[in-house]
Amino acid sequence: MDSVAPLPSSPRLIIDLDAVRTNYQLMAILSGTAKTGAAIKANAYGVGLERVAPVLARAGCASFFCAHLSEAMRARSVLGHEAEIFVLSGVSYGEAPLLRQKFLTPVLSTPEQIQLWREAGDGEPAALHIDTGMNRLGFDWHGFDPAMAEGLNLSLIMSHFACAADPDHAMNKIQLNRFSLIREAFPKVRASLANSAGILHGPETHFGLTRPGIALYGGAPLDTGGPALAPVARIEAPILQVRTLRKGENVGYAASFTAPRNMTIATVAIGYADGLPISASNHGFGRIDGHITPLIGRVSMDLSAFDVSLLPSTPEPGDMLSLLGKDLEALASASDTLSYELLTRLGPRFVRQYKGSSA
């Protein structure tokens, strides 16, 4: 009997490291005279911190931003001792020795964190986060007394735009003015305000250091418009079964889709355990050989159904359906979410394949 090669049964995630490098270089150009850092939190927005961080370093990035100590320690292990790594959550009791040992820079947001680092930081650098209107982390700009930072070895002051995706939003100018006032108290300390979208607002937002995030990974920083970015992440999910759906029959849990006509549907190995949000149910889409294929029915844990009735030829089990790539923003919009969430939800079950000369 002839042997038959097994069909692929799990999705793979294809990550273009050259695209990451290209996007970083574009953000660096748009940052003008400011240095350009990089946000690599949440596993480099889902695409792999250990693979992405060295690519960014080789592209010229020297300053990296992580959310938590655990992320920063992973980054240090692959970046070596030269890179500057900021921990956005700051410092808590028990973490100071590790921060010092790994030469990690906490971003301080409360008087308690300042006091803790002053006592336990042993003179190592720290950053200050000033809240200028987002009301999330940081010192309230209203009552902030620069004298609170006395005795600290400050390497950066920073804030974060709340509405940068909309360049015309009034909050952008308000936050810029507030941050500029605070910066006057620290004339010799680097300042950072602009994320990916903020970079596109122009030189007045750049200060000494920009810190792009979503743009590095192929997501659009602005609600509309903006530069063309290279797609970074693409999912290839195998078709497991092709079947005929008769008019009036239902698909998936809760029977949320009823066939309006006889249809051909493909069951694909992709679900919410892989990061495809349930909000994509009956709204999302993929592509087969470049042709759009609507997602029908509810996304389940491991499987989703796609309408392949209108394709030039009927696919077969083992053929691949693509998601994300150049459709990242469109799929996010159809799923009533953001590209940030689609990327950071990418699950551990993917067979990850890195490509490009940087791989």
How would you characterize this protein structure?
The chain has 359 residues and is of the alpha/beta class. The chain has two domains: 31-217, Alpha-Beta Barrel (TIM Barrel), CATH 3.20.20; 233-355, Lyase, Ornithine Decarboxylase, Chain A, domain 1. The protein contains ten helices and 20 strands. It has helices at residues 17-30, 41-45, 49-58, 69-79, 96-101, 111-120, 170-183, 196-199, 328-334, 339-344; strands at 12-16, 35-36, 38-39, 63-66, 84-87, 105-108, 125-131, 139-140, 153-158, 191-192, 209-210, 233-245, 250-251, 257-258, 263-268, 285-288, 291-296, 304-307, 320-324, 351-355. Strands 1, 12, 15, 16, 17, 18, 19 and 20 form an eight-stranded mixed β-sheet that branches. Residues 1-5 have low confidence and may be disordered.
List its salient traits.
single chain; 359 residues; alpha/beta; TIM Barrel; Lyase, Ornithine Decarboxylase, Chain A, domain 1; 8-stranded mixed sheet; 20 strands; elongated; disordered N terminus
Helix and strand topology:
Layout: E1 12-16, H1 17-30, E2 35-36, E3 38-39, H2 41-45, H3 49-58, E4 63-66, H4 69-79, E5 84-87, H5 96-101, E6 105-108, H6 111-120, E7 125-131, E8 139-140, E9 153-158, H7 170-183, E10 191-192, H8 196-199, E11 209-210, E12 233-245, E13 250-251, E14 257-258, E15 263-268, E16 285-288, E17 291-296, E18 304-307, E19 320-324, H9 328-334, H10 339-344, E20 351-355
